[in-house]
Amino acid sequence: MNKIETRVWTSDTVVADLERAIHEHRLPPGTKLGEDELAEAYGISRTIVRAALLALSHRHLVELKRNRGAFVAQPSVREAREVFEARSLLEPRTAHSAALRMTEAELTRLRSNIREEHAALDAGENGRALLLSGQFHVEIARIADQSTIEAFISQLISRSSLIIALYWRRRAALCETQAHHALLDAFANRDAALAEQLMKSHLLDLVASLDLRNVTQPPMSLREALQR
Prior knowledge:
The chain has helices at 11-23, 35-42, 46-58, 77-101, 104-122, 126-143, 147-167, 177-188, 192-208, 222-226, and strands at 32-33, 62-65, 69-72. It is mainly α. The protein has a three-stranded antiparallel beta sheet. α2 crosses α3 (46-58) and α4 packs parallel to α8. The relative contact order is 0.17.
């Protein structure tokens, strides 16, 4: 396998690269993450690979199975419901707080995120659109200035990416861009109550776009998934 990129890879940068590949659905749930193949791809030792996989397992993105190795996590139906129930409890309140704290600079950043998401969808880059959609939600939590809740939401959104990869049934699972525009309008008007209600409805619509019987297949190889 050719090396992915000529650079110095550490466990942290490998974690970031694999996490991005998982979020963009280049590494779907169930993909086997072989230590030897990853070590060769990144040009690093298996020790660094193991550290990266362990870190990803702590984020619930990778499952470490005894005597079988590491796999991209496959959330169960129950886990999927729990993740979105948690998001429905946390994110409407962060949207409320974010609306009250919103500045013009932050509005500009959110608008830029939406433009990039649109561009990715128009280009057929659904994985990148999903990543940007998740970043939009994390950014709202950051603006709310609640660091502990932001950390929870970031992890929940990461797990949501796996859930969408497994169970989506329509393009809306990427997050309806109209919903993001409506949220942006509420933020621009500093309407905290409306932002809270819109976020709640948005998450309900997202859950409705999932088909709990649908399961995707992993890619043919890690090299195909990680090469860009």
